[in-house]
Batch of 2 targets.
Target 1
Amino acid sequence: SQQGEEDPQALSIQEGENATMNCSYKTSINNLQWYRQNSGRGLVHLILIRSNEREKHSGRLRVTLDTSKKSSSLLITASRAADTASYFCATDGSNSGYALNFGKGTSLLVTP
Amino acid sequence: DGGITQSPKYLFRKEGQNVTLSCEQNLNHDAMYWYRQDPGQGLRLIYYSQIVNDFQKGDIAEGYSVSREKKESFPLTVTSAQKNPTAFYLCASNTGTGGYQPQHFGDGTRLSIL
């Protein structure tokens, strides 16, 4: 069952600009994760934020979490053409086995 | 380097045929997962396994089967009962302990119908 929903579905920016993607979810979570997928490849884990954290940084990535609004955002600063990919949020849910629920993703295009 | 290897990269299935997708990991992870990804869609869980010789159905298990005879291997069979098998299949693993840990993914198998 998909719980996370990313917004926008697609985003096109120029190199050097910042890219912001949002994720909304429906039920309470233990943590929320962001993944990146290059075309035709598997997903790569970017960052995990726990339910008791509000903000987390990793290099050019900044993730926020607002559990009261059941939403998260991923900010990529000073974007590069190599950041072109799809970005997915993933939440834990009621699944056993610690499987994740993935949204449909935001497709990011960064043009030189 | 440790990682997950999926093979083949591309696979074609004829009508009425079963096909098996391979997934091998050398990360010493206990838990393994199979997801299906359709164009423009997120990932949907097919099956998962937390330990050898045990596995559980995910959200879309019908028409699929798995086995977990070794810790390193979690093959997925797409049976003839799966009427719409064309998709990108992703295998993942994690430590399976301590909550919802990051998952490591293979590079997928793209399955098409002949």
Target 2
Amino acid sequence: AQSVTQLGSHVSVSEGALVLLRCNYSSSVPPYLFWYVQYPNQGLQLLLKYTSAATLVKGINGFEAEFKKSETSFHLTKPSAHMSDAAEYFCAVSVKSGGGADGLTFGKGTHLIIQP
Amino acid sequence: DSGVTQTPKHLITATGQRVTLRCSPRSGDLSVYWYQQSLDQGLQFLIQYYNGEERAKGNILERFSAQQFPDLHSELNLSSLELGDSALYFCASSVAGRGTDTQYFGPGTRLTVL
């Protein structure tokens, strides 16, 4: 079975600093990987996804992530944090299966705090 | 706005009761997913439907059931409710239910069981 581990339940960065949110996955078959963001009292919004094309994936709001098979990682980065980036971030994995998807398996989330 | 709608937004009920949560997918999406988000369990996949048929099951309790209707809206039925069922329930939809598809999430239904 697949799983996702997000290191750090809370990450605090200063406005303008680099954002790095870590995600490691476990899967016996090639995975599809996703990063979602959840703002307070809202649903989840897709930031970006890896579906076995380019290993460096660019998403919305200046975020990007790199798939590293050797490290089983899919860390999310943004060069310069903005106050509006404060939210909960979820890494998720979907594993190829015959005929369709089995839903997303999510990590426990990382709460990103932006210090002014 | 993802285009996925869920009703009601909030639901407060008592233990032992039964409730129905409703979801309308984005226009054109054939697949619907249900997820439960709670503080102790995190986000968990419950069940997936594709064009009216059950496609995959996750950690869905036997007291819970779902269906997808011909107009593609879906309902999640929760019965014999327990305090531990209090959670945020999300519906998501995707075009074809493939692993590579983006799942678009609704705003959720917050269920409180007293």
